Amino acid sequence: MGVPLQLNTVSDPATPAFLTKESLDVREGEVLFVNSIMHLHKYVKESRGSLKAVLQAIKKLGPTLVTVVEQDANHNGPFFLGRFLESLHYYSAIFDSLEASLPRSSPQRMKIERGHFGEEIRNIVAFEGSERIERHERADQWRRQLGRAGFQVVGMKSMSQARMMLSVYGCDGYSLACEKGCLLLGWKGKPIMLASAWQVAKASSS
Fold this sequence. Notes:
This protein is of the alpha+beta class. It has a domain at 33-74 and 134-204. 35% of the residues lie in helices and 19% in strands. Strands 1, 2, 3, 4, 5 and 6 form a six-stranded mixed beta sheet that branches. Strand 5 and strand 6 form a beta hairpin. The protein is globular. The two termini are 32 Å apart. The model has no long low-confidence stretch (mean pLDDT 89).
């Protein structure tokens, strides 16, 4: 199509001081898209100031679209027992979906279970304060946080395409739903992932 594209990968952690047009080499007249995949929850601190600062920095970049993919779970409670029980139910669904999708001998599955989800569970239940960075939240909470930061949700219009992609896995346990502009992925009735798209609200872009 003759449209030049440039991809800038932001390393972790992405501080508000780094999220500037100068640091990211955003040039005048360019159209900017921000894609955050399972990243923003790491800024959900107990005071919420860190996430607010990151979202404000993203808004100042003037992006045309911001896409957010996060785990749809409540792992940010202040009490251990609540987080433990929520993690138990959530990751039971996750591991059950892996059992149905990948054979037990799959190196890919073992890497995901031990290296990724295993470390997440450990951080959620065994750490506190600033050391606890796996602070996943539910879709409603993400809508509130992004709305307060000056973003408005853009309705998802690709349900049929998403369902077609999901059918490729040949597994009946997954479900898709669109709720208040968010695309929700579930496993046997349990929400596990959410995807949403956002624009800077007109009232806050000035």
